[in-house]
Amino acid sequence: MPPDGSPLEDVVMPSGSAEGVALWHAVADFIAGSTGDAQNEAFNNLALRVFRFQYQGCSLYRTWCGHLGWSPLDVTSLSRWQDIPAMPVEAFRWGHVHSEGLIENRPPLVFRTSGTTGADRGTHRVLTPELYRMSATVGFAQRFGPPSDHGAVVLGLLPGYLERPDSSLVHMVEMLRAAGWIEDNGRPSDGFFLNDVGALFDAIDALREAGRTVVLIGVTWALVDASEAWKASGRAPLTEGVHIAVTGGMKGRREEWVAERVRRALQSGFGCTEVAGEYGMTELLSQAWSLKEGVYQIPPWMRVRIRRTDDPLSINVSGSTGGVDVIDLANLSSCAFLSTQDLARYHAADITGNQSFTLLGRFDRSEVRGCNLLVD
């Protein structure tokens, strides 16, 4: 038995190559010891190690790098994380994104992206569920405080996701609740509200009366509908004690709105002064959180990199709007360097720190043409 007396099977044990296991411990230690400090040098060194590990171990990523002209010599001689090539998130639809050489002694998690047809959905097979749990819970605690009997309670308004057993968003909410951001005598699987906004409103009222802060994580279109219902119910404005955290989009229920329009609608309906937000996706294991004004803060084991809209392989150094590349070191068993179809700009106060950004919207729905290079 381990020193704490827990059964050996309850201890997470990574296995694989020597470098894979060493990296697992290095990333876990980095997450556990992370503070608000950017830790630039430590992050840079660890990101370069992860890059070389995944270049060797992830055939799809190595193929992508090869099409961009990268050679093994280029990989070994790289000295800055800012220059690591990012692979489009659409690659999860085109093939198996997996880095050989690392697995935990836990059943893998299998998440699938949303889509209108099975062919449209990508798959993320997470072989490091404990690393995922650490990343999600430590990152959440940095923004909303640690779990406690008097701390925040996470609720979910996730129709369209809740019905899917392979939703990473539903799993994340359950995981946060299981970690302690939960009401008294609650269960992790409780706290979800499909279409019953009346029950949701009663739960919010009860938690506020008990002195608990509420973090309501909801898909955009459902929150907009709920805000209209809140206003129509005549309830008092949610001026304090509740974080309305927007994630996802309209998912075809309404036309897509820019972020500012969403915030205005929620402020008008709920009467809240600020609107929070969660930035994450099936292809990533970490999240960025916004508490106000649409400014998203990322945890120290992540970075964002804004690329030019007219040249996706070039970094936007002007501070203007561009496409979002994400570096997420928790994505150790898949690919940590991903290019998204989101549009953002660095927050004015953090133009060089790569730690905060303002999310503005998305490119159009066209598929990234380069992804067909990854299809055999």
Mean pLDDT across every amino acid position: 89
Assigned CATH superfamily: ANL, N-terminal domain
Helix percent reads 25-40%
Overall number of domains: 1
Output the number of helix runs. 10
Molecular shape: globular
The biggest sheet, with number of strands, parallel, antiparallel or mixed sense and barrel status, is:
11 strands, mixed
CATH topology: Rossmann fold
Q: What fraction strand?
A: 15-25%
Beta strands, count: 15
Which structural class do you get from the secondary structure elements?
alpha/beta
Give the N-terminus to C-terminus distance in angstroms: 47 Å
Unreliable segments of 5+ consecutive residues: 1-9, 366-376
The SSE order reads: EHHHHEHEEEHEHHEHEHEEEEEEE
For the record, the CATH architecture stands as 3-Layer(aba) Sandwich
The CATH top-level class label: Alpha Beta
**What integer value in Å does the Rg equal?**
21 Å
Short synopsis of the structure:
With 376 residues, this protein is of the alpha/beta class.
Describe it for me?
- With 376 residues, the protein is an alpha/beta fold.
- The protein has one domain: Rossmann fold (3-Layer(aba) Sandwich).
- Helices cover 31% and strands 19% of the residues.
- The protein is built from ten helices and 15 strands.
- Strands 2, 6, 7, 8, 9, 10, 11, 12, 13, 14 and 15 form an eleven-stranded mixed sheet that branches. The protein has a two-stranded antiparallel sheet with strand order 1-3. Strands 4-5 form a two-stranded antiparallel sheet.
- Strand 9 and strand 10 form a beta hairpin.
- Helix 1 runs antiparallel to helix 2 and helix 2 packs across helix 3.
- The longest helix is centred in the first third of the chain and has 18 residues.
- The protein is globular, with a radius of gyration of 21 Å.
- The N and C termini lie far apart (47 Å).
- The N terminus and C terminus are likely disordered.
